[in-house]
């Protein structure tokens, strides 16, 4: 999910305690426990075989004889569509993202004992992040193999969201379940000149076309640790240079990011990479422009925008990245103006962490606010997620919450009509001793 310049000026409160009953990150505990049981058994058997025999050893030996017959659980693989919990696929811990050593003045962090200790005591946080990232990789693998022109955006969005719900084990239908894990924000399916924040509302009949450039921006969270990662899909090779530009720009941003790095320096490097490309479409050559009012952003627990921005053009502010922070590094390239404005019907919303405690006179707004707090807390959602919870006729109340400054609306962001925009995005963890590109995969 993108952050737009000027809409995001308010520094969001970081303390979400009241709104978010938090679950313990019990990732993969089941599988792990059963593994341990097995190895304990092995140790018992070994002790018996070594002849520390007593009267119990006979019984233990019988047990051992049975053991070779015990069918070893087949290694589980992901289904198609994805419905197998990743905690079952990785009972002993989740894959680590791409680790990149800090450089220059921060090179000492790689081996520094204090920094390594700080990193180790953060293991729950890391496991939650890596679980979410693995879900993201597996769901997007399904998306990349199965999304084809002719599908409706509604089918595509539901496919991604149901994959995310199944793999995290949070279908989000019971009160509070969405806050423990599952969908981290609405599935962005933004086509052509629409750069970000488009997802279908109920009744949307939009069909993906052969010539479309679709940004797929979806989120996975485990215990409020949101993985924010996006890619662009095309079905015609003529867009290849546009995609190459944005991929290069995002990887440049990821490479430049680090503790004590000024965000303006990252923005300048991103723009330079992006704007070294051009793309030829139907006989006309376009320079690829970085969309100057879209930004990457930091992420805090249960909030997709923590208050810091990562520009994608030069001239940004001198705010520095700090140890322990999490950033969504995302860049957008365009064949148009390189500047987006709000347009079209809103679908994306989130409860503001700093929402004023104003008395609401509209009854439907009060009851809707209650539903939002109990089901999403400050995690972003869209109208379809209210529909599936059985909410009806909520638009008046919803608009009232937006006007009251309690809920923030994130309208679709569009460049000029006829232009094409592309996006790539990863979530990075600025761990004390190493930078982890947690959402990195073989695909991007
Ligand atoms: Co984002």
Write up what this structure looks like.
- This protein is α+β, with helices and mostly antiparallel strands.
- It is 32% helix and 20% strand.
- It has helices spanning 29-49, 57-66, 86-89, 113-120, 123-146, 153-168, 177-180, 240-256, 263-274, 363-375, 383-388, 395-403; strands spanning 3-4, 98-100, 181-191, 194-196, 214-222, 225-233, 278-281, 284-287, 289-290, 294-298, 309-311, 326-334, 341-342, 348-351, 381-382, 407-410, 413-414, 421-430, 435-437.
- The strands form five sheets. Strands 1, 2, 9, 10, 11, 12, 18 and 19 form an eight-stranded antiparallel β-sheet that branches. A three-stranded antiparallel β-sheet has the order 3-5-6. It has a three-stranded antiparallel β-sheet with strand order 4-17-13, with no helix packed on it.
- The chain starts with a strand and ends in a 7-residue tail after the last strand.
- The chain binds cobalt (II) ion (CO).
- A divalent metal cation 2 binds at residues 228, 297, 330, 425.
- It catalyses: Release of N-terminal amino acids, preferentially methionine, from peptides and arylamides.
- Its EC number is 3.4.11.18.
- This is Methionine aminopeptidase 2.
Annotation keywords:
alpha+beta; eight-stranded antiparallel β-sheet; three-stranded antiparallel β-sheet; EC 3.4.11.18; 12 helices; 32% helix; 444 residues; binds cobalt (II) ion
């Amino acid at each position: 999910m993108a952050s737009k310049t000027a809409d995001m000026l308010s520094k969001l409160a970081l303390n979400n305690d009241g709104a978010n009953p938090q679950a313990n990150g019990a990732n993969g505990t089941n599988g792990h426990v059963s593994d341990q049981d097995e190895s304990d058994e092995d140790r018992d058997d070994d002790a018996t075989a070594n002849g520390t025999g007593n009267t119990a050893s006979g019984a233990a030996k019988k047990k051992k004889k049975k053991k070779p017959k015990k069918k070893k659980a087949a290694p589980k693989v992901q289904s198609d569509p994805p419905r197998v919990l990743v905690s079952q696929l990785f009972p002993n811990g989740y894959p680590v993202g791409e680790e990149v050593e800090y450089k220059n003045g921060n090179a000492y962090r790689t081996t520094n004992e204090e920094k390594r200790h700080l990193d180790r005591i953060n293991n729950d946080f890391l496991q939650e992040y890596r679980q979410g990232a693995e879900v993201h990789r597996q769901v997007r693998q399904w998306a990349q193999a199965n999304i084809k022109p002719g599908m409706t955006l509604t089918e595509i969005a539901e496919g991604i969201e149901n994959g995310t719900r199944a793999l995290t084990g949070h279908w989000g239908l019971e009160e509070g379940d969405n806050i423990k894990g599952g969908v981290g924000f609405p599935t962005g399916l933004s086509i052509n000149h629409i750069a970000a924040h488009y997802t279908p509302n109920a009744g949307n009949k939009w069909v993906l076309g052969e010539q479309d450039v679709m940004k797929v921006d979806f989120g996975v969270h485990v215990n409020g640790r949101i993985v924010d990662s996006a890619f662009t899909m095309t079905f015609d090779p003529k867009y290849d240079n546009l995609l190459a530009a944005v991929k290069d720009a995002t990887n440049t941003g990821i490479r430049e990011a680090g503790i004590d790095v000024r965000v303006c320096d990252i923005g300048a490097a991103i723009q330079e990479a992006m704007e070294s490309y051009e793309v030829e479409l139907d006989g006309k050559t376009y320079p690829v422009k970085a969309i100057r009012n879209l930004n990457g952003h930091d992420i805090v627990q249960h909030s997709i925008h923590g208050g810091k921005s990562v520009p994608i053009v030069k001239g940004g502010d001198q705010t520095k990245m700090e140890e322990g922070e999490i950033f969504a590094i995302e860049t957008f390239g365009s064949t148009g103006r390189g500047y987006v404005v709000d347009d079209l019907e809103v679908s994306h919303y989130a409860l503001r962490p700093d929402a004023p405690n104003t008395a609401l006179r509209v009854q439907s707004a009060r009851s809707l606010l209650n539903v939002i707090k109990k089901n999403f807390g400050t995690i972003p959602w869209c109208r379809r997620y209210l529909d599936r919870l059985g909410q009806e006729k909520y638009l008046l109340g919803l608009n009232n919450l937006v006007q009251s400054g309690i809920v923030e609306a994130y309208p679709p962001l569009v460049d000029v009509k006829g232009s094409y925009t592309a996006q790539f995005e990863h979530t990075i963890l600025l761990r004390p001793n190493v930078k982890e590109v947690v959402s990195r995969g073989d695909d991007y």
